[in-house]
Specification:
There is one protein chain. Helix content is 74%, strand content 0%. The protein contains 14 helices and no strands. The longest helix has 40 residues. This is DUF2336 domain-containing protein.
Length: 318
């Protein structure tokens, strides 16, 4: 009798596990349909390419690994590499749950691939560009020094992208604190708290590549739009110039350079008072076979700014 009861309990337990597995599998299949529909409907292969996805995964893992090395130090772990290795996959997944951080990492991956494509197709260097050369040769020692520092930061960024790395010290402040908070929430409480405190003490947002590029733009004579040309400024400074000139988020400008967001980029450029023919020329550089559509010139810069502001309000409310 007891044997039959044991068998019955075992069968019931198996059925419960089976139902659980089937439910999880069904949810996965259901969600994969949404993802597949998005990918099949999206012709922007560069923005969602395998290489972009690989870089996103690599950068998130690198961020997680740095956080865990700091936690391992706080825990006085003998083998910090093993400590991080055992936990980095889980923490990287938790970091990916933060939309702003994930979007930023996506923008960085896209930026580096666009730089590579511009170099291959149009021989536009990702580091040494006319704008930086002019600033580095300026009689103003402060501006020249800032240009050289920004040039070095840009060179490091491209090397880091090749290794799929993202140093914690290069994260914008909001995302740095988001990453550290994730460690505090999911790590070992005592050692994670010590690690978080140390990381925050060391962080200097003003030394990030973004901050250096922004300082350089603000230190230049004339309006940012005077240098609003990929041939003159290279992609990284181009998006920084446009972001500062229009008051946009830099990641928004980067992602507007994708094939599916050309109208948004045209609006941003026209809002900066760029002529329609010049806008078409920039689109050809980015996308290669872009049509010479100059209809954007029918809109005034003020109207474009209003349209972009309305679009931003709509996105923020959704």
């Amino acid at each position: 009798m007891r044997i039959n009861e044991a068998k019955q309990r075992s069968a019931q337990s198996f059925e419960e596990r089976l139902a659980d597995e089937l439910a999880r599998g069904g949810a996965l299949v259901a969600s994969s349909g949404t993802v597949l529909r998005h990918l099949l409907a999206n012709d922007d292969y560069l923005l969602f390419s395998e290489e972009v996805v690989a870089r996103i995964r690599g950068m998130l893992t690198h961020v997680a690994r740095q956080l865990l090395f700091a936690e391992a130090e706080g825990a006085e772990s003998v083998d910090r590499a093993d400590y991080a290795q055992q936990r980095q996959g889980v923490l990287a997944g938790q970091l990916a749950q933060h939309e702003t951080l994930l979007r930023h990492v996506h923008a960085l991956a896209f930026e580096s691939l666009l730089i590579t494509r511009l170099a291959q197709r149009h021989d536009i260097d990702g580091v040494v560009v006319p704008l930086l050369e002019n600033c580095a040769a300026a009689p103003d020692d402060e501006l020249a020094g800032l240009a050289m520092t920004a040039l070095a930061a840009q060179a490091r960024f491209l090397q880091q992208q090749k290794r799929m790395e993202l140093p914690l010290s290069e994260l914008p402040g909001e995302m740095f604190h988001q990453a550290v908070l994730t460690l505090e929430e999911h790590g070992d409480s005592a050692s994670a708290a010590r690690a978080a405190s140390g990381l925050r003490d060391q962080f200097e947002e003003g030394e990030t590549r973004f901050a250096l590029l922004a300082k350089l733009v603000m230190s230049m004579q004339g309006a940012p739009s005077d240098w609003l040309s990929i041939e003159k400024s290279g992609l990284s400074l181009f998006v920084t110039l446009l972001a500062i000139d229009g008051g946009y988020d830099r990641d928004d400008v980067l992602l507007a350079c994708s094939e599916t967001q050309t109208m948004r980029l045209q609006l941003m450029l026209r809002a900066a008072d760029m002529h329609a023919n010049d806008i078409a020329a920039q689109l050809r550089l980015i996308h290669g076979d872009s049509d010479d559509d100059t209809q954007i010139g029918m809109l005034t810069p003020d109207h474009c700014r209003d349209l972009l502001a309305a679009l931003a309000r709509e996105q923020n409310s959704s």
